[in-house]
Amino acid sequence: METVAIIGVGLIGGSIGLAARRRGLCGRVVGIGRDQTRLRKARGLGAVTAMTTSIEEGVRDADLVVVCTPVDCISQHVLRAAASCRRPALITDVGSTKAAIVAEVERALNSSVSFVGSHPLAGSDKSGVAFARDDLFDGRAVVVTPTRRTRPGDVRRIKEFWSGLGARISTMTPQAHDKAVAATSHLPHIVAAALAANTPERWLHLVAGGWLDTTRVAAADVELWAQILLHNRKNVLHALGLHQEAMEVFAQALIRGNKKELLRLLAAGQRRRNALGS
Amino acid sequence: METVAIIGVGLIGGSIGLAARRRGLCGRVVGIGRDQTRLRKARGLGAVTAMTTSIEEGVRDADLVVVCTPVDCISQHVLRAAASCRRPALITDVGSTKAAIVAEVERALNSSVSFVGSHPLAGSDKSGVAFARDDLFDGRAVVVTPTRRTRPGDVRRIKEFWSGLGARISTMTPQAHDKAVAATSHLPHIVAAALAANTPERWLHLVAGGWLDTTRVAAADVELWAQILLHNRKNVLHALGLHQEAMEVFAQALIRGNKKELLRLLAAGQRRRNALGS
Asked: Which of residues 79-118 of A touch B (CB under 8 A)?
């Protein structure tokens, strides 16, 4: 690839630029955004080699366009990019939800330009290009979400791109992806926010590692997260309902003073948690 | 102080020994436990200078006894130590709950030996002396929980001991302590366990930083935690009820697609979380 264009150069977009350059995946990285100051910062950090506030101009010579804007804007940015970039350019995104975005894009996309949805599971409670890292995707999961309309060759190219950045790839339908991340990401976010918000201020001096870990993601950008939760609200509500039931089972074990049941519930959590690293 | 005796030399007990020795707070640290192998390991790591499986023998010459056993055993260990140690020895503990332990001890304690309850908020999802660290208490909160029966001079000595290990001290009644940690520690633990247990195994390859942080404490020792939750079940159930209500408010905002309300809820969590470090 000669040129990669990145629309939205924050933590994820900036890290894609840094990683692509470090690994020599492309010659040029064009950063596209609304804010000149932030674009200059991205260039200063080496995340992009060129910059523009015009999507049309920025994508013109791109072989690959990666849309890294908030989920509410992604489909329109993909479509604007598609209208300006030359074939055989490929477009992908990094949105945390996939079904609505992919459906909106496929409904409107001229078939001569290719789009494949992606979701690198590599966010953090931090945002902004200042936190971008060239190793953000090393060993991290990226879900690629082709549909029946996606050409196999395009899926392969997008997978190669993410593998080239160090990620391990999963392929899922947009719907299956959204269902999974409702449980693995969106529900934990709501739980963290609710826990943090409802800890009385007078007790904050008593929090320790457990509280700090459990609530960490609540520090993330609230506008981005409100969009994500609303995009995926059906699946999130389902996951939230199951969580409410699980908490009620805990409550019943406590009410009854049933230690055997409490041990069973705690052990189930411990087993699943230990299946992964710290 | 010449001699500190530690009953139960795991993560916390071992760290007390390491920190007390590093800071020169005492000449000898006697480790008391049931398991010779673990005691030898503690001595090998420098957490204790002497070891015994007999509480009676181990506390005999102690100026301070610190009981670091699971909460279900603490009051009986305090009372056994009190029966064998010489005045003016002082006894404290490190239990994660305080009201039941302090009440049980005060009900039975001969007034010639002094007990002051403590709770260093410095646990982790790890357990065992292998994870002990001589800086575990640096800057961490330790709650000291005197009652109307506690002599002011004894409270002062216990506070000095914990300050000497690098901790910052809060003083609360046992009841106020238990109410606070139900919200800051015990509820997050249940939430983490429920989240981990209810994430379907087929989606575990998709978890990222948010899930890993939010569920981390679920890896902790389940027997210790079942005891803690049952000790404090009235307060934990109260905190759990408030959390369920907060989650229901989130659910309603999602059902209605009310973005303004979602932003308000997420911002409340973000604000409280940002009041503390990462």
From this structure: none
